[in-house]
Amino acid sequence: MPEPALELLKGTLDLLILRTLELRPMHGSAIAERISQVTHGAFQVKAGSLFPALHRLEQEGWIEGEWRESKEGRRVRSYTLTRDGRRQLAVEKKTWARIVQATNALLESA
Amino acid sequence: MPEPALELLKGTLDLLILRTLELRPMHGSAIAERISQVTHGAFQVKAGSLFPALHRLEQEGWIEGEWRESKEGRRVRSYTLTRDGRRQLAVEKKTWARIVQATNALLESA
DNA sequence: CGGCGTTATATAGAATATCTATATTGGACT
DNA sequence: AGTCCAATATAGATATTCTATATAACGCCG
User: Contact B62/B82 with Cβ under 8 angstroms?
Assistant: First the structure.
C-alpha cells in the first residue's frame, strides 16, 4: 500500500513552490501536480494552501502571475519566478540545508 | 560571525524534545541547552515554546514529569521518556526522514 | 540583612501557516 | 440545457511557535 500523504511542515511550502517555478513558469494546479509527482505523493498540496500561498508570494514580488489560456482552452494564472524570487529561493535552500543539518546532528548525537 | 539561530519549523519541536529525552531524563532548561549545543546554536528553543510543549507531551503520555531538586539545589521538573513516547519518537523519526527525502527529491529534480 | 541578579518554570496573547469546506467560473460533453 | 470537471478563490478552524511578562527560589555582595 502507498504511504499516506504527509502534512506539510509549516514554513516549507514557499520553498516547494519557488523551486518548482525555477524549472519553468506554471499555473497553480500544475505546480501542485508536479510536487505530488516528484515526491511520489508524499506532499499533496491542498488548493486551500496553494492559492493563498501564491498570492502571498506574488505580493512579496517573488513570482509574477499572468492570466493565460491553457492548451485545453482553460483560463489559468501562469506564474513566473522573478529575479527577487530566485534570490529568495537561494536563501530558503540554504535555510533548509541548515535545518536538515541541525536536525540530523540531534538525531545522530550520542 | 556565527550564523543566526533559525526559527523552528512548526511541527518539529516534539521530535527535538523526544529525541533529547531518549538519551536520558532531563529538566526543561537542560533540554533547551542541549538542543542549542548539539545544533551549534542553530536551534534555540524559546522558553515560551518549550514549556507549553513539555506540558503537551506529558498530556499525550509521551513523557513523564517529576519535581526534583537539582544538584545546584534548584527546584526543577525532570522529564522521562515513556514507553509510548519511544513509540511516538520512532513515528516522528520516520516522518522526518520521509519529509527530508521528499523535499530533496524536489530540490534535486531536473 | 536586604537588595539584586540569575535560573527555572509558567502562561497569556500575537502572529503565522496550513487545512477544511465551500463557492465561483468557464469549458466540454451529452 | 444540464452535468461534470478543472482551476481558482476565500473564509474560518486549527495548531504551533514566538513575544512578553510573571513568579519563585537561590546565591552573592555590599
Answer: yes
